[in-house]
Amino acid sequence: MVVPFRQVVRPIEVIAVDAVSDALAGLIRDLGEGARLPAERELAERLGVSRTALRDRLRLLEAFGVLNRRQGSGTYVQRLDPQGLEAALDLALSASHLTIESLHSVRVALERQAAREAARRGDPVAIAHVGKALADMEAAATAEDIDHADFAFHQALLHATGNAALTFFADAMTGVLFRAVRQRRDRLKTHPRDKEVSVAAHRPLYEALLAGDADAAGQASDDHFQVWHDLFTQPTMERP
Fold this sequence. Notes:
This protein is mainly α. It has ten helices and two strands; from the N terminus they run αααββααααααα.
């Protein structure tokens, strides 16, 4: 479970990456997922730091989902979850340190690379999941159904790359941007051709994956995002 960022007692930026952080990270790597950390006093002595300094770092790692503190049991190493980074991005957006537009441009670049890698990899099972999401989009009866199918399409695309690092970072941004786009759509009111536009924007990417054409997949990904950029930046009365 990700700890809300309000429970992190010091701003993230003031906790420097130093020898203590490196030593703690090394210990976590050595212990592995599911292992319990030594008691706080023992751990502070082992690392040669005060318990206060150690507690700061443990809280930060807990906030990012690396550690899971269980009341009365101890602190355990857990698999790094994109939700930790997603929470940080949400916080940065709400504090106006980032804009939706800047985050969106990073996502476009990541998904372009994802499309290229998925096409080159050509995993038929993974690509079938992309096709299933597209079929669900075509069968969608409501705007909410379209949103869920859209989200599933992009999740399937990311996992089709087989690239864990790319998937991790893109996953974190996708959740944040999915909510932002849905809020923007709600402000603009649901457009009667949303399903038609959505299917038409996603189909060329799916077809490029089937063909194993990395260049076409990358271009289709860019074209898809351009469609939505144009749609959401037009005044409502001018939308097609």
